[in-house]
Amino acid sequence: MRTTINSLKKGEKAIIKDFDIDIIPLKLLEMGCLPGNTVELLQIAPFGDPLYLDINGSHLAIRIETAKEIEVELIKITL
Fold first, then answer.
1. Backbone angles phi, psi at 27, to 5 degrees
2. Which are the contacts of 5, defined by CB distance < 8 A and separation ≥ 6?
3. InterPro entries, alphabetically (predicted)?
4. Contact yes or no for 59/30 (Cβ under 8 A)
5. Could you give the CA distance from residue 33 to residue 20 in angstroms, rounded to a whole number?
6. pLDDT per residue as tens digits for the range 32-62
7. Residue 79: pLDDT above 80?
8. Which of 9, 39, 63, 78 is the most exposed place for a label (fewest CB within 10 A)?
């Protein structure tokens, strides 16, 4: 099963694995949305779109349609 940014829950962190470069806006790439970088879901807008993220220290909002195209791997937190 493919895990994407839109499936993250508030506060969850993940590592960006893959995406289709033709679908992702260049602006996101410039802001650090690249494979290997960490992403955390900070907040979800009241109607569920957009998603507010922290990607390697850059805070940005992306649409659900874009979030569905970015594959991630969850970071397991052990206590």
1. -60, -40
2. 14, 39, 41, 51, 53, 62, 67, 68, 70, 72
3. Fe-transptr_FeoA-like, FeoA, FeoA_core_dom, Transcriptional_repressor_C
4. no
5. 12
6. 888 899 999 999 998 888 999 999 888 999 9
7. no
8. 78
Q: Encoding tokens for residue 27? A: 């602006």
The first and second tokens of residue 12, run together, are 């969850």
Residue 78 is predicted with a pLDDT of 61
For residue 35, cis peptide bond before it (omega within 30 degrees of 0): no
Tokens of 55: 């990607």
Domains of the chain in start order, with CATH, are 3-72 (2.30.30.90)
> What is the end-to-end Cα distance of the chain in Å, rounded?
26
